[in-house]
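Appendix C. Worked example: ROK family protein
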Amino acid sequence: MPGATPTAAASTVPVGSAGGARRLRSTTPEPGPASPWPNLPEVARDVLLEVLIHGPLSRAEIAARLRLSRPTLTRVTKALVLAGLLVEGDTRPRPSAGRPSEMLHVRGAAHHFLGVKLTAERLFATVTDLTATPVATAEEPLRSHDPAEVVAQIADVAARFPGVTGIGVTLGGIVLDGLVARHEFLHWVDVPLKAEVAGATGVPTAVDNDVQALTAAVHWFGPGAGLGSLAVITVGAGVGTGLIVNGGLVAGSHGLPPHFSHTLVDANGPECGCGRRGCASSYLMTHVMMRRLTGRPTYDEALARVRAGDPEARRVFDDAGYALGVLIGTVANVIDPEKVVLTGDGLPLYEVASRLVHDGIEDTYEDDPDLIELDVQPFDFSEWARSGAALAIKSTITGTI
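Step 2, the predicted output written as structure tokens:
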């Protein structure tokens, strides 16, 4: 790995707490890994970001988008080309007579980033270039839930991909400035994951909630690229929502992501496990859905039962589909997004209950449901890991890593 691993002065933090939550032995890096682009001016970051999100652009287009003078843009783009971040590529004819416009492209191979997604059972990793295009993937069982062991496992994975510019780690739960304040499935409380991974690898690291990171990746590198408003809804083991409003990722005053999972669907509905009844989570979380079925089948077994015409399974999936529609309609009522992206490991629900999803939207959304552009995106866990790499890219470009 490039860069020396910083030395650390250790301070003891109690291991374990009520409910089995785990804390990590805290260290204070002296200092942490330096930003790879410490001297990149803000205007240069803006130019790079514009080409990264919107694809190849001419200098005239960039100047118009960012309201930059020609001399300023010339100076900035020259510096980015010399730094190997942009490259001059093909030309495009101008609408009027004159020399064709030369296009600027992001030089993807200039940097690579490692994204890591943690679940309760597995670690998923993806290495991408600067454009978030995957170049390598890895997947393995999580060796332990102990925070120190997880950090060591991430460091082992990072060692297989030397030379990465940054690392992004995503996981469910509440993450505040790189501190995992709470993670239900790993039983973590106040784990300083960002500092520990950076210290163990010698690589600048970003850590965030997985749905927030996925939303940012969709907004920068996916079907929501460049949109001013966007909602990302994930269904599966949990129910997540990420929002883009006025071109920015929404986070609350306490750094918490948006929560719509307890939107009420039916006050007499099933319990969700958090003491609430009839909320979206009580219908949509896969383990709660399976709890309502005879024999507690796996999700794939339950889907097979639906497709075979089993009435009990059909009822559970129809209920879940309607709840998903209510959730989509509620989110659309709140922010009126240009697009709603639906994904997650529970996505087959939409395939078998799409009619009920649209019924729920129609019963909830206050305007014409045709105004909602619903984009159903195929899912696998490598996409979660890719969003970790996108998190590292974003943090590097914006100078927050």
